[in-house]
Amino acid sequence: MCRWAAYRGTPIYIEELVSSPAHSLIAQSHCATQARTATNGDGFGLAWYGDRPEPGRFRDVLPAWSDCNLKSLSRQIRSPLFLAHVRAATHGSTRRDNCHPFVVGEWSFMHNGQIDGFELLRRRMEAELSDDLFRLRTGSTDSELFFLLALQFGMRDKPLEAMAKAAGFVENLSDMELGTSCLRLTAAFSDGQNLYAVRYATDGNAPTLYAAPVSNGEGYCLVSEPLNDEEDTWVAIPDGSAVMLTERGMDAALFEPATGWAARNSRLKKAG
Q1: The pLDDT of residue 80 is above 60
Q2: Among 32, 75, 194, 253, which residue's CB has the most CB atoms within a 10 Å radius?
Q3: Rounded to 5 degrees, what angle do the CA atoms 256, 89, 176 make?
Q4: Is pTM beyond 0.70 here?
């Protein structure tokens, strides 16, 4: 499982989540406490928003703890909205194209979790994409493909609804092709204006997600694990939830796959 952190609010330096805290994202890359494996050393990435609609991005295959560029960039870049990720590979080799966050236009996306049986589902999932979106696929992970599916299902207009459709499509396809399904999805995504996150798993065992205000800025962070030992600061986001960070602050809602829509769509595709 991977670890990630994201922020939206008044501009802060990226190091305030990535490297400065006692249990920063870099610390979690070699000593995670709420993941199946303590080490997340299969690469890292940053996506941050500034004066342009599209985010800047930096990714590499080195472990986060051993890359001096990551600490240097985090110390110098100040942003009102950014996503940071350290990877523990489940699907896809250790290469830069498989490191999160993934970016298409103004949208960025990162994921902690997996799609069980992905190699048996991959071809059908890719077939759901338009030619334009399929050409944007550069890696081999289930995470990148799930992001492209969400874009296919209308993420630019209705982000959370598109995520629900993508989750429903994957679960339904798994049931049809494998006779069972298990999707684990704790993901963050943004259009540069708002920051969204979902926490969901078919079996009710989704990777962890926490939220807290950031003391050095007027904003909130979303993280896989708390960045310090101040237990009263961190709110655990329940399984089956969506979180939205906007100019109005933080809101939460229930999240569940759009199973009815996905079932109809998949049956029609298979019949055709």
Answers
A1: yes
A2: 32
A3: 45
A4: yes
Q: How far apart are alpha carbons 217 and 231 in whole angstroms?
A: 19
Do 189 and 200 meet the contact criterion of CB atoms below 8 Å apart?
A: no
Would you state the torsion angle of the CA atoms of residues 256, 174, 140, 271, taken in this order, to the nearest 10 degrees?
-110
Tell me how many degrees the CA angle 213-235-21 measures, rounded to the nearest 5: 55
Instruction: Determine the 3-state secondary structure of 126 from DSSP.
Output: helix
Q: Is 2 labeled as catalytic in the residue annotation?
A: yes
Residue 30: pLDDT band by 50, 70, 90 thresholds? low
Largest CA distance in the chain: 55
What residue type is 258 in one-letter code? A
Q: Which amino acid is at 130?
A: S
Give how many domains the chain has, as a whole number.
Answer: 1
Nearest alpha carbon to residue 29 among 48, 42, 14, 16: 42
Distance, CA of 107 to CA of 54 (rounded, Å): 7
What are the residues facing 115 on neighbouring strands? 183
Q: What CA–CA distance (Å, rounded) separates 55 from 9?
A: 16
For the stretch 188-218, what's the b/e string if a residue is b when 16 or more beta carbons lie within 10 angstroms of its beta carbon?
bbbbbeebbbbbbbbeeebbbbbbbebeebe
**Which domain CATH number covers 178?**
3.60.20.10
Is residue 70 within 8 A of residue 44, CB to CB? The reply is yes
Question: What domain range is 104 assigned to?
Answer: 3-271
Six token digits for residue 179: 């006779």
Please write the tens of the pLDDT for every residue from 121-150.
999 999 999 999 999 999 999 999 999 999
